[in-house]
Amino acid sequence: MSEPVRKESKNPDVSRRQAFVQLGVGSICAASAGAMVFGYEFLTPNVLYEPSPIVNAGKPDGYPPGTVTQDLPSGLYLVHGSEGLYALSAVCTHLGCLTAWKPELGIVACPCHGSKFRRDGSKIEGPAPRPLRWLKIWLSDEGDLLVDRSEELSRKQFVRT
Ligand code: FES
Asked: Are residues 60 and 135 in the same domain?
């Protein structure tokens, strides 16, 4: 009678038990790494970074006397009136539509519900409850016009050039 043939693994150093231990350790490491990633995301604040409210409008020379310049990306008007340069928000005070300067009429008009404003932002007609917002404007040390869109002025402010 012959003896049963015992099958040897190809790698005698790794037994079945060791393979299961390594698989378990690997699973625990993968689960720990996943938990650390989710834990980090849970603990870090979910912040939305917005662009600065301060706009560099360039040199005052770009705004000749008597002009109204609309800066569409910034949502503001730069007006050079008789008292100097000032900045108005182009956002309608009714429901927030972007208004447009109508040079042929000399007014600012809102395309949504028909509000109309003078070049100083005061209301002519329409459902807008308030005039357009006057924004803080000043000259930087380099001589550029800076406008802070987040700061509404309670009284008129001009930059004289
Ligand atoms: S949003 Fe301008 S009139 Fe309504």
From this structure: yes
Question: Per the structure, how many domains does the chain have?
Answer: 2
Ligand 1 in reach of 84 Cβ (< 6 A):
no
Distances (CA, A) of 53 to 103, 104, 108, 137: 27, 31, 22, 12
Two tokens, residue 136: 């803080």
pLDDT in tens, the chain (161 residues): 455 555 555 665 668 888 889 999 999 999 999 999 999 988 888 888 888 999 999 999 999 999 999 998 999 999 999 999 999 999 999 999 999 999 999 999 999 999 999 999 999 999 999 999 999 999 999 999 999 999 888 888 899 87
> 17 lies in which domain range?
13-49
Closest CA to 54 of 119, 133, 144, 142: 144
Whether residue 94 has its Cβ less than 6 Å from ligand 1: yes
pTM of the shown model: 0.71
Residue with tokens 């028909």: 114
Q: Is 100 close to ligand 1, i.e. is its CB under 6 Å away?
A: no
Q: Locate tokens 């008007």: which residue?
A: 77
